Amino acid sequence: MQKIQQKLNNRFSWYKSWHEQPYHPHLHWLTFLCVGIITLSAVFFQIKITFEPMEWVDLTFCHP
Questions:
Q1: Is there a domain that residue 58 lies in?
Q2: Among 32, 44, 46, 53, which residue has the least CB neighbours within 10 Å?
Q3: How far is CA 18 from CA 3, 8, 12, 27, 41, in A?
Q4: How far apart (Å, rounded) are the C-alpha atoms in residues 50 and 59?
Q5: Is 46 inside any structural domain?
């Protein structure tokens, strides 16, 4: 991983500048947590939609 980061540091000055900031690890973790929360929310919401009884569907037209 250090080899990749070293190549990126040498190639992109903005990348090197960003990683020299003292707060960059905090923002990395914050981004990771936000993406994780959004992903988990989407998965749980989809599970809820899939397995929740469909009370809002009127099936009376199926019965004579």
A1: no
A2: 53
A3: 17, 11, 10, 11, 30
A4: 18
A5: yes
pTM for the structure as a whole: 0.60
- Rounded to whole angstroms, the Cα distance separating 38 from 44 reads 10
Report yes or no on 16 lying in a domain. no
Domain-embedded: residue 35:
yes
Residue 16, class by beta-carbon neighbours within 10 Å (0-12 exposed, 13-18 middle, 19+ buried)?
middle
Which residue type is seen at 60?
T
CA atoms of 38 and 49, how far apart (whole Å): 16
Task: Report how many domains make up the chain.
Answer: 1
